[in-house]
Design brief:
Layout: E1 36-40, E2 50-51, E3 57-60, E4 63-67, H1 71-74, E5 81-87, H2 90-102, E6 114-117, E7 120-126, H3 127-137, E8 141-144, E9 147-148, E10 164-167, E11 172-178, E12 190-197, H4 201-218, E13 220-221, E14 225-231, E15 239-244, E16 251-252, E17 258-262, E18 265-269, H5 272-277, E19 286-290, E20 298-299, E21 313-316, E22 319-322, E23 329-330, E24 333-335, E25 337-338, E26 356-358, E27 368-369, E28 384-390, E29 404-409, E30 414-415, E31 419-423, E32 426-429, E33 436-437, E34 442-446, E35 457-459, E36 474-478, E37 484-487, E38 493-495, E39 498-499, E40 502-503, E41 507-510, E42 513-516, H6 524-527, E43 549-554, E44 560-564, E45 571-577, E46 582-587, E47 593-597, E48 608-610, E49 622-627, E50 632-637, H7 640-646, E51 654-656, E52 663-665, E53 690-692, E54 698-701, E55 710-715, E56 718-722, E57 724-726, E58 731-734, E59 748-753, E60 761-766, E61 770-776, E62 786-791, E63 797-798, E64 802-805, E65 810-815, H8 816-819, E66 839-840, E67 845-849, E68 867-871, E69 887-893, E70 896-903, E71 920-924, E72 936-940
Parallel strand pairs: 2-27, 13-16, 19-20, 24-26, 34-35, 38-46, 47-48, 67-68
Antiparallel strand pairs: 1-5, 3-4, 4-5, 6-7, 7-12, 8-9, 8-10, 10-11, 11-12, 14-15, 14-25, 15-19, 17-18, 17-21, 21-22, 23-24, 28-29, 28-41, 29-34, 30-33, 31-32, 31-36, 36-37, 39-40, 41-42, 43-44, 44-47, 45-46, 45-49, 49-50, 51-52, 53-54, 54-58, 55-56, 55-59, 57-58, 59-60, 61-62, 61-71, 62-67, ...
């Protein structure tokens, strides 16, 4: 290596230091009035994270020193550093302090500043002007970005720039102190140029070589870890990626390349400067990559940093860093993503810019500046409580109100920049600078700033769906120790905030729980447009929980609920589903009927609250709410399958009625849906519904019968009129003056006709002695149909006098052996039948089978005492029983036949059909009269 014959003084520092002023108290007599260059390498005088002295100038005992780093960093730097010292006066010291102060100014024009001393001179100028003159002048030796032009490399702990050192001639050297401000054009940034007598650089080079050899002999193979990253073209910091050696030892990276992997694509970065500056990394040393030359980092093309914050992977040797989603710009503030973050107010950043920026590229994240004693302490996550949430009214709407979360500081006054809000796995630091939150203060995290509202707020680019029903989950986290306090919503609570297509209400959180925002405490400015919320205001107050009634329910196309109210009350209404989910909405004073639906529909009109998708599922079968009529909580339940049948093919919505009627039907034609009867948000017009009541010939209605009601008794053979008399509220019984002119065995129906009935109504008033209790209309083998009959009277019945009738033909019954004397049918399970008898005793049953069938499969309730019957011809069951076809059982009395039993009840006003698939049979439920499809169970053939 080239020997440089210039005097060098190496000054080893002692331990006597003054942290508030200068680390150098005793200089001895080694200083003169001419500046002396002192170089250090491999020596750090202090440890710790508190940066108290950020000045690069010290003046003590008549000695002025200019340091290559702010003094608190200088004493912690293990790598290359220097200072230039000389004896001088306090006036000269103040002049230099003024000169360094000019380096912090952001101006297009800088004042004239210069200094001349013994054998030295200095001037304040712009970098562009100096660079132009410097290039003309040339140099013998340069130390720039830790690389000496002679080939030597020095290493440093902190990845921030040191002053540029130049040897101009054999006797003259120059040091360039640069600004710490990175705003504006680099050529326009101010610098201080100090020209002074050169030291002997030979000993410096020997010291560097010796220390490097020592470190290389001690270093442990390994790579650093990512400690900080940033990417935003609108920030002065542009893009950077910082790595840190987390160990107490020197490490030697095994790789001199960085690899990026994203979406299966891999790209690598190498450079000569990268290789030279990272041969070794000092304990807790920093390595900074950036495409901005202003940071004095290792230059790297922009293309390698454009994916930072987008879930990319960065590899340095064996270190694999998996990047997370991060939003670097949040409102008007910029944040770097740090692995060991601390309070933004407290963190020491070497660089200055116009940006509101939280980060410290090139320095350990844990470095803290000294905070004035009169400043409040850092906030803790546990003292922040949510008070209100509004999901926003999206910006394509007429009222583009931003989404916000409102919080309150429940503790003492504190600085909020120590906190970060974690939402949807994304970190949102609260503030890039000190944010004073007084005790009890209300503040917002908002999607967009509320311009002109004078709120304590922070803009954050979080996303909220158009329709939400709960306050989304989130965390508050201390930036320093990562202690979290979580808000977790109740997934069974649903706040109905969306009226028509706009979110009109916020959710308030207070000591009573959560509820939609009341009108009384809402912002008057927003209330004028129909929105109930109070951003930035204290909103705790009493909430009225209202009684209501469910007035209408439509389970079919465009389903909805309608709740009704009696007066001008206002408050919160809640109801609960069978699955435990609770729903809340605000009832305005002017509303009498409130509609709830899952989506907009012309059928349901305007003014509906939006329910979650899937609310009207097949599992929806009950509601609990505070009933105004009952004065207490009531439960309304129904069978989801049968309730759809009550809508008559989905054409009529339903109105709840007391048991046993349960539901009436709407008779008001819809204004917008042809052939549909519904009345969302309107007065209700109910159908007349009649149900059997306790006692013979006793009936219950949902409202009083009128003069147009007609009632008859009988069947297709004959009917007679009946007169009714009242026996209580909406209770009626038949007023009969004598016996009815019908056979005692004959099955009879009542027939009700009234204009308010959607369909005439019949009830089974009397059954015959033998009843149809099961039917197999559609077996796999088509000839194996059967009908199951039972004698439910007290007398034996001769079934040879009975007829079976379908919708086309009638056949007489006979015993199986009478028709087939030589056949003995196979019966599963080894059971038998009575084959040669037609006498059906009380409590006994019979099977009427297709004469063309064989090897019938019978249910498990078949008994050995059961009769096996068939028909004399093949006109009815012999031709097959069509699925859904009605079947009548008749008895010959003299020259005529009387109706005894019926499946499908075609002779009544209430006939029905039950279609089944192949292999299914129908069985009458115990205790049912068989007048509706719900009275039958459906079973498969695999008995």
């Amino acid at each position: 290596m080239q020997k440089l014959g210039i005097i060098f003084l190496f000054f080893f520092l002692g331990s006597c230091q003054n942290k508030d002023k200068s680390p150098f108290l005793f200089f001895g007599d080694g200083f003169s009035e001419s500046p002396i260059f002192q170089f250090q390498y491999g020596n750090a005088e202090e440890e710790g994270n508190l940066v108290e002295n950020t000045s690069s100038i010290s003046f003590e005992s008549g000695v002025l020193c200019l340091h290559s780093l702010p003094i608190s960093l200088y004493v912690r730097e293990l790598g290359a550093k220097f200072r230039i010292c000389w004896k001088t006066s306090i006036d000269v010291a103040n002049q230099w302090k003024e000169g360094f102060l000019h380096l912090t100014e952001d101006s297009n024009e800088y004042p004239t500043w210069n200094w001349k001393g013994k054998g030295a001179e200095a001037v304040l100028t712009e970098y562009g002007k100096w660079k132009k003159d410097s290039d003309k002048e040339g140099f013998l030796l340069e130390w720039n970005s830790q690389i000496w032009s002679s080939g030597l490399t020095t290493y440093q702990t902190f990845a921030i720039h040191h002053p540029l050192f130049l040897q101009r001639t054999k006797d003259e050297c120059e040091v360039i102190f640069s600004t710490q401000t990175i705003t504006g054009s680099p050529n326009k940034r101010p610098i201080l140029s100090l020209v002074f007598p050169c030291p002997d650089l030979n000993e410096i080079s020997e010291l560097i070589q010796t220390q490097n050899d020592k470190w290389f002999s001690e270093c442990v193979p390994g790579e650093p870890n990512v400690s900080e990253l940033f990417r935003h073209s609108e920030s002065s910091y542009q893009r950077f990626l910082e790595w840190e050696n987390p160990k107490e030892t020197v490490i030697c990276p095994r790789s001199d390349s960085l690899d990026w992997v994203k979406d299966g694509i891999r790209k690598s970065f190498r450079s000569e400067l990268f290789s030279k500056r990272t041969k070794l990394i000092l304990p807790h040393g920093m390595v900074l990559f950036s495409d901005d030359p202003g940071l004095f980092s290792i230059p790297i093309p922009k293309e390698f940093l454009t994916d930072l914050g987008t879930q990319t992977s960065v590899l340095w040797g064996n270190t694999d860093y998996h990047d997370s989603e991060f939003i670097f710009r949040q409102g008007t503030e910029f944040f770097s993503n740090q692995t060991n973050s601390i309070s933004c107010r407290n963190q020491y950043n070497f660089w200055n810019s116009k940006d509101l920026f939280c980060g410290n590229p090139g320095l350990p994240n844990q470095l803290e500046k000294k905070i004035k004693e009169d400043r409040p302490p850092s906030c803790q996550a546990k003292q922040i409580q949510i008070t209100e949430f509004y999901p926003g009214n999206h910006f394509e709407s007429q009222f583009p109100i931003p989404a916000f979360f409102e919080f309150q500081n429940t503790g003492e006054t504190c600085d909020g920049s120590s906190l970060q809000w974690v939402f949807e796995n994304t970190i949102y630091p609260l503030s890039a600078e000190e944010l004073i939150l007084p005790k009890g203060a209300i503040f917002l995290i908002t999607r967009k700033l509320w311009s002109g509202w004078n709120l304590l707020e922070k803009e954050k680019p979080f996303s909220i769906p158009k329709v939400v029903y709960q306050i989304p989950n989130f965390h508050w986290e201390n930036r320093n120790d990562k202690e979290r306090v979580s808000y977790t919503n109740n997934p069974t609570f649903y706040h109905l905030l969306r009226l028509n297509t706009q979110n009109r209400y916020s959710i308030v959180v207070d000591s009573f729980g959560e509820h939609p925002h009341t009108r009384t405490l809402a912002s008057s400015a927003l209330l004028a447009y129909g929105f109930q919320m109070s951003p930035g205001s204290f909103n705790v107050g009493l909430v009225d929980h209202l009684f209501t009634e469910l007035l209408e329910y439509n389970p079919n196309q465009s389903p909805f609920l309608d709740f009704g109210f009696t007066g001008f009350e206002e408050g919160v209404v809640s109801f609960q589903r069978e699955n435990g989910n609770t729903y809340l909405f605000w009832k305005p004073s002017e509303v009498r009927f409130q509609t709830l639906a899952t989506s907009p529909s012309p059928c349901n009109g305007d003014g509906f609250y939006q329910l979650p998708d899937g609310f009207f599922s097949e599992n929806f079968y009950s509601l609990r709410y505070l009933s105004k009529e009952k004065g207490q909580s009531v439960v309304l339940s129904w069978d989801p399958k049968s309730i759809k049948e009550r809508t008559l093919g989905g054409t009529h919505s339903l109105h709840p009625e007391p048991s046993p009627i349960f539901f009436s039907r709407s008779i008001l034609a819809s204004d917008h849906c042809i052939s549909d009867f519904r009345s969302p948000g309107k007065e209700k017009h109910r159908s007349l519904e009649i149900s059997r009541w306790d006692g013979e010939f006793t009936y219950l209605t949902n409202f009083p019968l009128g003069t147009q009601t007609e009632v008859r008794l009988g069947n297709n053979s004959n009917t007679i009129p009946l007169s009714l008399q009242t026996s209580g509220t909406n209770i009626y019984l038949v007023n009969s003056g004598g016996p009815f002119p019908f056979s005692i065995e004959e099955q009879l129906y009542s027939y009700f006709s009234d204009p308010s009935l959607i369909q005439p109504r019949s009830f089974l008033e009397r059954k015959g002695p033998v009843q149809i209790e099961a039917i197999f209309p559609n077996p796999k083998d088509s000839q194996n149909e059967w009908i199951y009959l039972c004698n439910r009277s007290e007398n034996p019945e001769d079934m040879s006098s009975y007829l079976v009738e379908d919708e086309a033909s009638t056949d007489e019954l006979t015993s199986y052996q009478s028709r087939f004397p030589n056949l003995y049918p196979f019966v599963n399970g080894g059971k038998t039948f009575e084959l040669n008898s037609t006498i059906l005793y009380p409590g006994h049953c019979a099977w009427v089978v297709d004469p063309d069938g064989k090897d019938w499969v019978f249910p498990i309730f078949q008994k050995d005492s059961d009769l096996l019957l068939t028909i004399k011809t093949t006109q009815t069951i012999g031709n097959g029983i069509s699925s859904g076809e009605s079947i009548q059982l008749r008895k010959k009395i003299g020259q005529i036949s009387k109706l005894i039993s019926s499946f499908g009840h075609k002779e009544s006003f209430s006939p029905f059909r039950i279609p089944v698939t192949t292999g299914e049979f129908l069985w009458l439920k115990t205790g049912s009269d068989g007048m509706s499809p719900e009275d039958f169970e459906i079973y498969r053939e695999e008995f």
